[in-house]
Amino acid sequence: MEWLQLLTAISKAAGRGNIDADPHLTPDGYHLTLYSPCIDAGERCYIAGPNETDIDGEDRIMDGDCDYFFNIDMGADEFRTCYLEPNYLVVDDFERYTDPIRHGGWTDSNITDVWKDGSENSTGSYITISTDPRIGGPIHSHKGAKAMAYFYDNNSTPFYSEAYADTNGLNSLGIGTDWTLKDVNLLSLWFKGFPDLDGSFTDNNDGTYMIEADGWDIWDTSDGLHYGYKMVNILGDLPVSITARVFSVENTHEWAKAGVMFRSYLDPDSQNVAIVLTPGRGVSFQHRDSMGDETIDEETIDGNVAPHWVRLTFDASFHFIAEHAEDNDGTPGTWLQIGEDLAGLYLPADLYIGLCVTSHNECELCTAEFSDVNMTGTISGEWESQDIGIISNDPESMYVVLQDGDSNAIMYYPDPNNPDNADPNATQHCPWTEWEIDLNDFSDVNLADVQRIYLGIGTKDNPTPGGGSGLVYIDDIRLYPSRCLDRPAGDFTCDCVVDYRDLKIMTDVWLYTGCLRADLYEDVNDIINFKDFAVLADNWLEEGI
Q1: Rounded to two decimals, what is the model's pTM?
Q2: Domains recognised in the chain with CATH numbers
């Protein structure tokens, strides 16, 4: 190979960042035009979230100017000139289905018209669409707006759960039975489970407390948190208040929250009032005025970090008042009100009062420490605590079955060729995880006549009593042609070969830090330099399998 060319390309790597030019926007002021310098000019090392889209709902990182560099655009719009047909066939992306609540009952676009669950096959499965409000919490999906919500309960016979769909005919997937078309050789699906992360409340008996909490957030119409509480009667002595010094809150997300809360009930959608401190967004006064209502951000003040003091008071005028103060060597500074007085809430006479924590990250526990907790009013009971709105899965395996007219084949995650290596904790994988299966592994099935696909949880061929229960989301089931399963290091473009297109991506982030996709050499820093280039060079023109 011509190494001089490679080194020359590296030396000419151009910087990207802010622009000082006409952005060439469309008349609406939001969209980029063909000649905009904002295309592929955003933060080099930005990694988009799994559901992150632009103003039009398109994927947030795409090769806008067709130079094989997948970099985010500046602004609200992600421009695209490369409108190529997708290199995959959609088995199901779940976008076409509606939910039974928001649309006034079951409709012709119901997921259970296509996918049959335990009500049809007598297994432990129950499926709905992820936008079904009965689930509570955030709406989960890998890409797009929806996913399958797959509830499993393997505690009773047959001790496994299954959902299946036909590939052709009435109320089917509609993809057809011939899975050899367009040279497809790979079945891919994405799934997301929930780990078994129990929250905890610890009274250190020295005036300090520690709470560990999972939870998606204290927000929207339903919360996920750990709550340490006592009871207070608001018809007794007024004012009622709780004061706490938030000594620390772990940065599991910039919107992780630790603070003080009044709560009507211990249901996830309960009415509540809270003032919380976050690792990255300051202090916030928020409330949900009625069961199941949206949470209201009364006011958020950026810049405040732990240690910090928070106080919430229910006064003789039946108003909630939220205050916060800087920490001065363990004592509060000047108390400042945040937001307006909150009035007009219809509350039960007995309220829960206490400390709340959420990680704003369903995959990780957040630890927060409190001290100097003081309550006034008619307080009763000892400290108690519990998780509220936390989803925790029992561990189970996952499998896929393809069936033709005469036979079927079952593949377990993650190693289809060795069922003994099935991951018994697959349902606890919390980040969205792609599962790729070589279609050739379904050797007992006629791939030109695939009539049905099954998604299973448990061990169908060796069911074990008492397998447990939980919730798994499944999305973006696709068939890919000629996609390698084992890509060589340096194949940034995912085309199964290391070549000049991958080199260009490396040169465009040359000497940058934080660009994990181009950081090939394992060392203590993440600078893209000649060590990483050496790994790419060693794999030059190497092809995946």
Answers
A1: 0.76
A2: 92-195+394-481 (2.60.120.260), 200-388 (2.60.120.200)
